[in-house]
Design brief:
alpha+beta, Tetrahydropterin Synthase, Chain A, three-stranded antiparallel beta sheet, 6 helices, rod-shaped, transmembrane, Band 7 domain-containing protein, transmembrane helix, Band_7
Amino acid sequence: MPQTPSFSAPASAARRLGKIAAGLGLLLFVLLLMLVFIRPTTVSTGPDQVALHYSDGAFTPRRFQECVPSSTRAWDGPGDKHYSYPASQRNYVFGEGGDRGPMTFVTKDGIEMSVDGVAAFLLDTGDCETLRKFHDLIGNRYAAYMDSSDGNGSAGWLAMLSVYLSRPLETAIDRASQNYTYTELYTDPTVKAQWERDVLEQLPDLVGRQIDGDEAFFTDFAITLQKPVPPESVKAALVAQQEAVARAKAKEAEAAAQVKAAEAQVAVEKAEAAKIAERIKVLGKEGYLKQYAIDAGLNPYQPTTGGLITDRE
């Protein structure tokens, strides 16, 4: 009988190759899975940044580990988190194109004004424990840590400042403004400078009241306020008033000048009269008149009819 061809050897080889491929695929999957869970995390802080390191891996509890100082690159465990905060002076700008619009306030005489300016401050990153408390109480709640892609403050940073800095600053400006009229703030640089100092004096305490606990997370405040601006209608009235005062002062100065000119003229005339009186004493009245005529280009010695020779018959 003819023998049927046997395919057992090639089939067995194919099965072995399939098992090997499956094994390699499983190994690759395991390696990729391990890479996801065990690859280290890294942080690189700039010269004006400090970072907080928290463990947060798949098999570790979320727990604070350490502070990472400025200008440092570090590698930590898989899944760990790093949160960067600014270590240099920060500015909060209010006004057109700033972090928020102008701040409004009411003066002693009840006029609403607005002002642009800048509030400068430092976040206390010098003490690691203080920074950790800030992150746990405030920073993490608002996601206020820095955007690591460009080193700028995040949207959460501005949201946090709107609560912990902007509102206290509004209160400080409003309270300080109760001591001054709008004309003083608008026209007197000395009063405006004192008003600015009053705002700065109140700000640290008002900021501290927003924070639970005794920590001073924000320090080294500085304030720069631009010239406050009243409503347009009030400004127009004030300008008109100033123009009227200027015109009145100009008229007063003109009148004073005319008085002085008249007084000077009287003094000249008195001096001339005294001079004439002295000359009369020397020349006599008739002699003075003759001399005056001569000085004026006249001839005081005109012929008279009494001196004419007439024909005698």
